[in-house]
Write a structure and sequence with these properties.
The chain is α/β, with parallel strands linked by helices and 473 residues long. The protein is 42% helix and 25% strand. It has a five-stranded mixed β-sheet, sandwiched between helices. A four-stranded mixed β-sheet has the order 1-2-3-4, sandwiched between helices.
């Protein structure tokens, strides 16, 4: 059987047109179902794949190729990966798709013929029609990025912050969101109401409507609110991150350290971090004024808790205490101001820049010692933020200016060389063109050397400009 398939595949590939290599062939749907149902699903899979802008082989051509192969003795089941790949070679397509019905729905798989392996698979439940089942199966298999739905969050209070899957989408009333189909978590918070967390499942091609009715908050209720357990995977914590205080350090140290602290906390699983900018919007001018007037941590946590529904408040200060720089950090319970965790990190004398940023990573590790990071998140400053702490000294425009020196020197040298040759040919004084030739060569060499030497020290990503913009906000 395998020999027959190999022979047939070789013959088919010899006659395959080059443009066939970018196409898709849908072989067939197998499984315990009447032939008419399997044929209908196969046809709908081909149509659905074509509707996704793929070049899909004609069903008649594909069926004829497979029938011809089986006529040569290649009667192998499409449930075998080896058989699928061998039969796929007959079509000349780059990608082949097969389906199989099981007790729960339709399983579809795609194989890359060139790589000789399966590249993706998907399972969908059986819908009321074969077309709907095939459409979702093709979408989930070939273009999962297009499997989208919509969500409308209807909050009965204006100005409530809406966070979906730990991403802040603004305040209510809010436009309908387009999200991937599947489960999502929605967190709604308002300064004067108890926060709520809801779970909603969005089906492909539909709009889910979540109605949220917030309950008024009272001081008594806030005091009774249960403290979340740091190690409880079923509990989400809301953390208010106040701006890092760094007296005696450059003005940008505070802003960049706050960015590093917030970035690291946002990596923690089951944690929703609210930074200073968002916190100011939630608290309003009166709340911000009250917070700035505070002189102790109890006042600060009380001011935050009175305006925003959070569980923790994180405070960090950077002080130079000779002969070292100390980072003092605290995690406080928002309702009671009780200190839950604290950390003191000693840095080198007059530590600046990246050292303070790296200290924020250690701070989060000590304030949340048992919290896990989200999948795929690693501890440490991102490369972009690390550059923000210590931007390269040479602006991009300066490097461009250096790069312009070389062609200028080449141009002067070429003019000098031409003039020198003409002077020699005419028996004239060649001092000036010779000087131009030597000068041009020297300038070009200096320019080229500068371009090469400056490469590691160029601010390619505009970190200094971003810092300047942050300083003037």
């Amino acid at each position: 059987m395998n020999v027959a398939v190999v022979v047939a595949t070789a013959l088919a590939l010899m006659g395959a047109a080059p443009d066939r290599q970018g196409s898709i062939a849908v072989l067939a749907v197998t499984g315990p179902a009447p032939a008419s149902i399997r044929q209908e699903l196969t046809s709908e899979l081909r149509s659905a794949s074509a509707s996704l802008a793929f070049d899909v082989d004609s069903g008649a051509d594909t069926d004829a190729i497979i029938a011809g192969a089986r006529g040569l003795g290649a009667d192998c089941p499409l449930t075998s990966d080896t058989c699928v790949l061998q039969l796929a070679g007959l079509t000349g397509a780059r990608l082949v798709v097969v389906g199989a019905l099981d007790g729960d729905g339709l399983v579809v798989r795609s194989f890359n013929v060139g790589l000789s392996r399966q590249v993706s698979s998907a399972h969908v439940p059986l819908s009321s029609s074969a077309a709907q089942t095939a459409r979702l199966a093709a979408l989930r298999l070939l273009r999962p990025d297009l499997e989208l739905g919509q969500l409308t969050v209807d909050v009965d209070v204006a100005g409530a912050t809406i966070v979906v899957d730990n991403v802040n989408h603004g305040i209510s009333p809010m436009a309908t969101l387009t999200l991937s189909a599947g489960p999502h978590e929605v967190y709604v918070a308002h300064a004067d109401f108890d926060s709520q967390t809801h779970h909603v499942d969005i089906a492909y091609g539909t709009t889910a409507v979540l109605e949220v009715r917030l309950d008024s908050r009272s001081d008594t209720d806030r005091g009774r609110r249960a403290r979340p357990s740091v190690g409880d995977d079923d509990v989400f914590r809301r953390v208010a991150v106040l701006a890092v205080q760094a007296p005696g350090h450059p003005p940008l140290t505070s802003s960049l350290a706050t960015m590093a602290l917030l970035e690291e906390i946002q990596k923690l699983d089951h944690v929703i971090a609210i930074g200073p900018a968002e916190l100011s919007g939630l608290m309003g001018p009166g709340g911000v004024s009250a917070l700035r007037a505070c002189r102790d941590v109890a006042c600060q946590t009380a001011a935050v808790s009175a305006a925003v529904a959070v569980d923790d408040v994180v405070l960090v200060e950077v002080h130079h205490v000779a002969p070292r720089t100390l980072v003092l950090a605290s995690r406080l319970h928002a309702a009671s101001s009780e200190r839950l965790q604290s950390a003191v990190i000693a840095l080198a004398d007059h530590a600046e820049g990246t050292a303070i940023g790296d200290a924020m990573v250690k701070v989060v590790g000590r304030l949340y010692p048992v919290a896990r990071r989200r999948p795929g998140k690693l501890a440490g400053l991102s490369s972009s933020l690390r550059r923000r702490f210590e931007p390269p000294p040479i602006p991009l425009l300066g490097w461009v200016a250096s790069a312009a020196i070389a062609p200028v020197g080449v141009a002067v040298g070429v003019v000098g060389a031409i003039g020198y040759q003409r002077s020699i040919d005419r028996a004239q004084d060649a001092t000036l063109p010779a000087t131009m030739l030597v000068t041009g060569a020297a300038v070009a060499g200096v320019g080229l050397a500068l371009v090469i030497i400056e490469i590691p020290y160029v601010d390619w990503w505009g970190a200094a400009a971003a810092n300047a913009a942050l300083h003037h906000e």
